[in-house]
């Protein structure tokens, strides 16, 4: 049986955005199919002859904005409450798939979280049945079986591959709030670094002695992350900065307008969390990049509008065009992070 669906997880409320994104990108790659948005996830059903694995590879998770996880999937199963396990095992065997691990997940809603007890009770019996039938084994190319429960009697099976998936359950990176950080927003920048900077490069790209600017810095959650890495920070904001952070002597607080302030020399990092129109933020960041005032940037695009995918796609395309026209070679990535709400996070790294 050739799987003919993809399954993507997302933050509840962003299903239309993810559906629009997948439909647009699949069509641009010449694939036929339609999105099936449901709470906290979007299925993409192919009406194409080619196997779904090929589209899955052509749409890497890292290139998608609104997807938290990306799987090749089978048709959802309706289960009877008397015997949930047999149909699951049967579908796995029919598919011919085999795996190294089994993850059970649910949409990120309170209703779905109530399924936690059921899921826990099923884990061991399922693993043992799948092992007995050879579908769960030690060497299976790192493939993982995902059981996506939307109801106690409704589950969809999906498969993920190393290198093109989130390694976090539910695609959610949970981070501990650092007790002395001045605001919860601090987790947005920390998550952005986990997402965009490979861990083995932190010591060279997020290094002690680097210089950074934080636009819209107050009270200092993002500046706190930069300081924690030992960087010197220009914190630009009319509002007050956290006293403890100022006592580190690593922060220069300037009560200036982040949209017009220019750094005195080339910096390593620009970060910006100002709440304003995406187009205005992009124009400002574009100026920084074209003038090569920083090597890397992380900034948020706030999305209070209805057509969020369209707004993001327009903004990113415009940034890409301007940088290309100015001869600036850069890598641009944009993700809707777990700690982002009505916003997405963009990362840009200059190559020259
Ligand atoms: C969401 S808060 C930033 C929170 C911060 N990242 C943190 O982690 O604590 C947005 C900040 O942008 C500032 N702001 C708004 N317009 C600005 C501008 N034109 N220039 C500089 N800062 C601005 C506001 O004063 C506010 O403190």
Q: How would the blueprint of this fold be written?
A:
Elements: E1 5-9, H1 15-28, E2 33-38, E3 41-46, H2 52-58, E4 69-73, E5 77-78, H3 85-95, E6 101-105, H4 110-113, H5 116-132, E7 144-151, E8 154-160, H6 186-196, H7 202-205, E9 211-215, H8 221-228, E10 232-236, H9 243-246, E11 251-254, E12 267-272, H10 278-290, E13 294-302, H11 308-325, E14 330-335, E15 343-350
Parallel strand pairs: 6-7, 9-10, 9-12, 10-11, 12-13
Antiparallel strand pairs: 1-3, 1-4, 2-3, 4-8, 5-8, 7-8, 13-15, 14-15
Helix pairs in contact: 6-8, 10-11
Bound molecules: S-adenosylmethionine.
Describe the model:
The protein folds into 2 domains: 5-171, VC0802-like, CATH 3.30.2130.30; 186-350, Rossmann fold (3-Layer(aba) Sandwich). The model has no long low-confidence stretch (mean pLDDT 97). Helix 8 (221-228) links the parallel strand 9 (211-215) and strand 10 (232-236). The chain has 11 helices and 15 strands. The protein is α/β, with parallel strands linked by helices and 352 residues long. The longest helix has 18 residues, at 308-325. It is elongated. The strands form 2 sheets. Strands 1, 2, 3, 4, 5, 6, 7 and 8 form an 8-stranded mixed beta sheet that branches. The site of S-adenosylmethionine (SAM) has 22 residues, from helix 8.
